[in-house]
Amino acid sequence: MARQNVAEQFVDILVRAGVRRLYGVVGDSLNPVVDAVRRNAGIDWIHVRHEETAAFAAGAEAQITGQLTACAGSCGPGNLHLINGLYDAHRSMAPVLALASQIPSSEIGLGYFQETHPDRLFQECSHYSELISSAKQMPRLLQTAIQHAVGQSGVSVVSLPGDIAAEPAPEKAAQSALVTSRPTVRPGDAEIDRLVEMIDQAGRVTLFCGSGTAGAHAEVMRFAELVKSPVGHALRGKEWIQYDNPYDVGMSGLLGYGAAYEATHECDLLILLGTDFPYNAFLPDDVRIAQVDVRPEVLGRRSRLDLAVWGDVRETLRCLIPRVREKTDRRFLDRMLKKHADALEGVVKAYTRKVDRHIPIHPEYVAAVLDETADDDAVFTVDTGMCNVWAARYVSPNGRRRIIGSFSHGSMANALPMAIGAQFTDRRRQVISMSGDGGFAMLMGDFLTLVQYDLPVKVVLFNNSSLSMVELEMLVAGLPSYGITNVNPDFAAVARACGAYGVRVEKPKQLAGALRDAFRHKGPALVDIVTDPNALSIPPRISAEMVTGFALSASKIVLDGGVGRMLQMARSNLRNVPRP
């Protein structure tokens, strides 16, 4: 039996770690690895048109499956293109292994053609970034990289010169057992004791939840019932905590709605559960705050804390539930639920007037119809910008749907590449890319990847011929709109030219039928919807401090934005509020 080379050993270890796809663009220094993938039945090479897409796709797959994924780029410019998607994966805590192939090892440091130093370049967006400079480092270095990515939930980068990849692998190289999943973390007894004391002493408790509440929905609901707490959430917590939630008071932050802001500011004790909420201007500075997170490095970095608790949200709540005293006073909870419903009633009027006849089409109306038409287990990938607003306010989570976006990194053009990674995990599951025309155009070449692999992704394109979030920022600064206009083609015609299904929608009455037809189509499809560029959004609470870095405007062209089916849920929750 022929001795393995380093590339073959590299690929075998990826397969052993559960990696089933390697996203990338082929190139000379990467050829030994690509050839090893070709000869390994346990893994597929996914040829994308841009390496940035490869990293976004791998990150999305990791977020859907919770398992290690991988992407690759050839030396120099090839692997440099990975960096934006890797930043996003790292900040989203997605376990991704990136292979950055390198120039010949004998030429490193001599200004060779396409020379860069990826082991240095990727340090800021990874937990681990190292160069394999000798075949003898395999397989230990790759195993270490994998365990960093899985154990710390983020990116690891391995730089591998093409000549070393083609060398024989070390004989009798030890292959250790690989860590492929994370443990749960229980807080210490002292922290639990102190948190129980703080909860029992507080008359009004509010929970504010982030993505760290994944898998803890039942525990959060039980705990909220015990302490009669309103439950707000950040954008990344929406899919995990908003559904089946009789204590829901909406979302705080730049895209917020409802009474979450009031609930976090009018309580005696605010408990932050699994959130590294970045906008400290929306957090109170005059109430007691406890934070629970599995990542100790994020505790207290956004707000002053009275108690920092290192642990999984679910494990922490399981420790608390048997010990806290049940509260009997619902007045604070009921008042916040009423405020929430009233707030939603007010903003709904902004998009309900004659929307079925308004041309150009209100994007709020598009999002509401999309929410009603999509499958109950659909995966939504969401472009940064106004698509974030519409997804935050209209896509209704139910415990089965997923909502993925560049919510921490804030990159343009993420929705289509993320849809590729999401769809590869399950071709039978509906995957919808909520794309803006600016973001879609930026990485439009990878629409061809959908066609090449016959991936049934449905691209719902909010086409207002504008970078509208940027325009809103300009309005805030008192600047005239400049450089934000997109001269677009008929994107539906482009989709058809690529060999996919494409339809253009310019009238509201065409919308529902166009979406249903596209969703029934068995292959990739694009629905190009011409939307109103004047439909913008502002958060529910505005202060001078919040203006910095975000779009706030007093102009009459700015709408509050609707909230879709959330109003119905808020009304339903109000029925449970005791009447005097």
UniProtKB/TrEMBL annotation:
One of its GO terms (molecular function) is pyruvate dehydrogenase (quinone) activity. InterPro entries: DHS-like_NAD/FAD-binding_dom, POXB-like, THDP-binding, Thiamin_PyroP_enz_cen_dom, Thiamin_PyroP_enz_TPP-bd_dom, TPP_enzyme_TPP-bd, TPP_POXB-like, TPP_PYR_POXB-like. This is Pyruvate dehydrogenase. The keyword Magnesium does not apply. Belongs to the TPP enzyme family. Residues 5-116 form the Thiamine pyrophosphate enzyme N-terminal TPP-binding domain. The keyword Oxidoreductase applies. Keywords: Oxidoreductase, Pyruvate, Thiamine pyrophosphate. It comes from Streptomyces collinus (strain DSM 40733 / Tue 365). It is an enzyme of class 1 (oxidoreductase). It comes from the Bacteria. Its EC number is 1.2.5.1.
